[in-house]
Specification:
By secondary structure, the chain is an alpha/beta fold. It is built from 9 helices and 14 strands. Strand 3, helix 3 (100-111) and strand 4 (117-123) form a beta-alpha-beta unit. It is elongated, with a radius of gyration of 46 Å. It is a single-pass type II membrane protein.
Length: 329
């Protein structure tokens, strides 16, 4: 019995050894590394350690998102503010007469359409009249109401008019701006019997020193104008005294506010001034012909007319007030 067992054992022993050897070799092989599955965190960690949720998709996602955000965080350049619009100061002498309110109404209707305009209205009177005061209060315009009477000895025919009134306007301007010399502005003598195109105010607003342009219906001609060559005034087309240093009408020029403030003694003169020479006497104090700035397409366009209101006919007006009501005209 034992011999049979031993014989079977020795028969199976080689096979048992082969199985043991194979198992031993298999256990000595290195195991393949485990590859972890990728994990995407729904949060992003900031510099301070705080966690912020991420946005998935959308127009801001992608490789350029960070660059875009950095560009947006940079301060954008601010647009430069536009320079202030120069103020046009219109000095208007006026005096009491039947057509005064009608003249001022037409002038105010024009001035209301001009941006940044200040009206200096100067009465030829010892005191402000109620008519002009009420008119200005309702005109809806930035304005200053002055008054100064013309001495009786200067009211003779043939003598210059409105001298004291224009000088009063100049004095007010200099006093107002004695501490504000850097403010841009333009001075214009706007008589109340003229008609003005709105384009004229656009032209004069760019005046650097003294600008000039034609005037219609003046000097016995359809118009008068400075003669211009190569952008410079070289003479005058006029029907009266072409030998004047500045053969120009009062409505034909504008002066920079800085020029007025820099020449505090420049005024309209009474003594030594001949009729029709006031413009020349004033301009000689502040500029030369070579420095004049031609406007209105090199002085080839008429933008102001010396129209003057027709003298009214009041032959049937009663000597004493007969109406039951008093109407301001």
């Amino acid at each position: 019995m034992k011999s049979v067992l031993f014989s079977r054992f020795f028969i199976l022993l080689p096979w048992i050894l082969i199985v043991i050897i194979m198992l031993d070799v298999d256990t000595r092989r290195p195991a393949p590394p485990l590859t972890p599955r990728p994990y995407f965190s729904p949060y992003a960690v900031g510099r301070s350690g705080t966690r912020h949720p991420l946005r998935r998709g959308g127009p801001d996602s992608g490789p350029g998102r960070g660059l875009k955000k950095r560009n947006e965080s940079r301060p954008q350049p601010q647009p430069q503010p536009e320079p202030p619009l120069p103020t046009i100061y219109a000095i208007t002498p006026t005096y009491s007469r039947p057509v005064q309110k009608a003249e001022l109404t037409r002038l105010a209707n024009t001035f209301r359409q001009v941006a940044q305009l200040h009206w200096i209205l100067v009465e030829d009177a010892a005191a402000r009249s109620e008519l002009v005061s009420r008119f200005l209060a309702r005109a809806g315009l930035p304005s200053t109401h002055l008054h100064v009477p013309t001495p009786r000895r200067y009211k003779r025919p043939g003598l210059p008019r409105a001298t004291e009134q224009r000088n009063a306007g100049l004095a007010w301007l200099r006093q107002r701006h004695q501490h504000q010399r850097s403010q841009p502005g333009v001075l214009f003598f706007a008589d109340d019997d003229n008609t003005y195109s709105l384009e004229l105010f656009q032209e004069m607003r760019t005046t650097r020193k003294v600008s000039v342009w034609p005037v219609g219906l003046v000097g016995g001609r359809r118009y008068e104008r400075p003669l211009v060559e190569n952008g410079k005034v070289v003479g005058w087309y006029t029907g009266w005294r072409a030998d004047r240093p500045f053969a120009i009408d009062m409505a034909g020029f504008a002066v920079s506010l800085q020029v007025i403030l820099s020449n505090p003694t420049a005024v309209f003169k009474r003594r030594g001034s001949q009729p029709g020479m006031q413009e020349s006497d004033f301009l000689k104090q502040i500029t030369t012909v070579e420095e004049l700035e031609p406007k209105a397409n090199n002085c080839t366009k008429v933008l102001v007319w010396h129209t003057r209101t027709e003298k009214v006919n009041l032959t049937n007006e009663p000597k004493y007030h007969l109406d039951t009501v008093k109407i301001e005209v």
